[in-house]
User: What shape does this take?
Amino acid sequence: SSELTQDPAVSVALGQTVRITCQGDSLRSYYASWYQQKPGQAPVLVIYGKNNRPSGIPDRFSGSSSGNTASLTITGAQAEDEADYYCNSRDSSGNHLKVFGGGTKLTVL
Amino acid sequence: EVQLVESGGGLVQPGGSLRLSCAASGFTVSSNYMSWVRQAPGKGLEWVSVIYSGGSTYYADSVKGRFTISRDNSKNTLYLQMNSLRAEDTAVYYCARDLDYGGNSCFDYWGQGTLVTVSS
Assistant: This one.
C-alpha cells in the first residue's frame, strides 16, 4: 500500500504563515484531504479536493498540490490553530484502500 | 444535523472479540460510504475499513481476515466486528462518513470515538 510522509513537527510565530506538507506517490493520482485534531478530540476536516473548505473552516486555511506533494497553508496562524494535522488520500494501487500521513504537530509561538 | 455516535468499546483479552456500533443521524448510512479509522494511544490516525453504498467492503492489511464492517439499514447504524484481537489493536476507534467525490475521498463527519483496550 502507499505511504504519505509528513514532517513530525512545525512551529510558527503568531500571525505568521506556515505550510505543512505531505508527500506520497498516491498524490500524483488523488487529492489530499487535511484534518485538524486537538488533544482529546476527534479529527476535523479542514481542506479537501483542489482547495475546498467545509462550512465553518476559516479562510486562513488553504490547500495546494504539485506532483507528489500536497500542502496545507495557514495564513496568519492563530493560537487556536495549534494542533496535530493529518493528510489523507486514496491509496494509489487501485485497491480501494485509504492512507493517512503520520501527522504534523503544529506549535504556535 | 449530522451526528455519529460510537459505542461498544471496552477492555477485552487478547484473542477475544468485540463489536463496535456507530449510530448515525441526519443522513442515511446506506446511501453513503462509511469508514472506520483508529488511533492508538499517542499515535497517528490509521484507516481500518470502508463499506460502500453498494455493499462492497475493503480492509487495511493489518485487520483483513479478523475485522468485518457491516451496517443495519433499518437502524441506520454501522458496525465493526473485531475478532482475534491483539494488543496492537488497542486504540480509539472512530467512525466517519467517507465522502466520495470524483474518485477522491475525504472524511467529512466523525464520531467522538470509542476506546478499545486489548490486554490480559
Summary: The mean pLDDT of chain B is 97.
